[in-house]
Amino acid sequence: MQVPTRLDQYIETSKQQSFEKDFHLGWEHYETWEEATVGERAPASHTFTVVAEDIVSYNRACGETDPLYTDPEYALEHSPTGEVLQHPIFATTVGFYSVGSSGIGSWMRTPGARNPGQLIEINEPFREGEVITTTVTTRQKFIQRGKHYLTMFMEFHNQDGVLKGTWDCSLILPASKARIAQFVNA
Question: What is the pTM of this model?
Fold first, then answer.
């Protein structure tokens, strides 16, 4: 499924340009509900190096216009941190980028998935220049009212081991590759 061209205006950074936005491509390699093992814990596929353009682009895509969020030079002089500020859910950008398109947690890209709830906790803001490593733990897997739920817990640590934040990510998923194929080929 192609991403609508009207969204191209938000694709500004090198990470965004290299990130596959069509989640129908390569879906065969995504971890499925059937394959997920509760208690499994592993590092995500990629690290995320925080650069100002990532934060600014995310903030602008959220509709932010305050220069503390959109202008690094202005933020240098006026923000409490001396850096551009970020929206708390910037963590989702780090999570999606880090997880990748195969292995643990890749089910978050599954076509046909629905979002019943998320919990993001930020311990401290991500800082420009930090290299963020994401650790993924498969936390829950259950069926309720005939729907297949899967929850993973992501921990975001910087290069010094400081916990920057966490994300409890839950989705309702098609249970098998055969069921996912029905969504992809619809």
Answer: 0.85
